Amino acid sequence: MLWIVLIIIVLTVTAFLVWACATISSGVWLKAECRGRSGRVYLTFDDGPEPGRTEEILDILASRGAKAVFFLIGSRVGGNEALVRRMLAEGHRVGIHSWSHSWDFPLMSVSGMTDDLSRSRRVLEDIAGEPVRLFRPPFGVVNPTVANVVRRLGLRTIGWRIRTFDTSLLGKEGGMERILDKIDRNLEDGAIILLHDRLEGSGELLKGILDLIRRRGYSCDRSLD
After folding, report:
1. pTM exceeds cut of 0.90
2. Active site (annotated) includes residue 196
């Protein structure tokens, strides 16, 4: 019987650790901000900049007077500096989303991860001309190494309240409707919405989200303070 108890304990601890790492709102390793101020909702876009599609997103935001935060992959900034400058000039904010968004980012050493995030930070700060502190970990994975590096670099980790799963739903039959329905059901004061600006159809989705936000009486007139 003892070995059965030990197996149960090991499985329980393992399940907890997996949950703690994979759930950015868990707060076990690192406190991530998953809600903003009351009266507003916050649009965040990961994985850019993506020429063409990011421009479409910026055009729509400008036409609606809405602001957003773009968590950028450092290796994609080169050659797209004008897009980043436009984001900043139009009142949006930029954040760090690692250098290459590689699958092994959560498995990096402290020194490797520090180099990765510092490199991304430098290219953004060279364009912004001011400190860049916002950070969203790739895949939303937070573990002790991520927590250590974030604290060393003085970064501010941003999670989300609404994960749209647009990367898996957008483009599928009924996918856009499912995303909008999920946002509608979970929309609340201060909700941070996770989106991606690299996807086909992201512009039409954004229009639907902005219509929904307006109907619900919220605004996106400021990015994260």
Report:
1. yes
2. yes
